[in-house]
Amino acid sequence: MVIEQALFHIIDGQQMAFEKKFYELSDIFRNAQGCEKFKLIRGIENPQNYVLQIYWTDLATHIDVFMKTDEFRHWFIAMKPFLARKIDMQHYESTLV
Fold first, then answer.
1. Is the Cβ–Cβ distance between 79 and 47 less than 8 Å?
2. CATH node for 2-92
């Protein structure tokens, strides 16, 4: 299992619009091959910061399949106007179970 963690820095004042658009399009993750679960969390100290955690079966399915779909491109285009800067994305694996 691979855990993707993407940090979104949202333009201040656009948080609610970002959340609304994200939730409107969240079926992209529910229906994605290899996506086991996901969650979007908002920063408390910095409410313009969000972390999207996605649990993938493997990295190849995420990178080589999901990120090349038309659905992902559509989702990214819809998210881009809310971004204050580039999404910081990292991948992790569990070391302690």
1. no
2. 3.30.70.100
Show me where the domains of the chain are located: 2-92
pLDDT by residue for the chain (97 residues), tens digit each? 999 999 999 999 999 999 999 999 999 999 999 999 999 999 999 999 999 999 999 999 999 999 999 999 999 999 999 999 999 999 999 888 7
CA separation for the pair 10, 82 (Å, rounded): 5
Q: What is the residue-wise DSSP string for 44-77?
A: SSSTTEEEEEEEES-HHIIIIIGGGSHHHHHHHH
pTM value is 0.92
Q: Determine contact, residues 34/61, Cβ cutoff 8 Å.
A: yes
- Count of alpha carbons within 13 angstroms of residue 18, beta-carbon side: 24
Using CA of residue 94, residue 47, residue 49, residue 71, what is the dihedral sign? Answer: positive
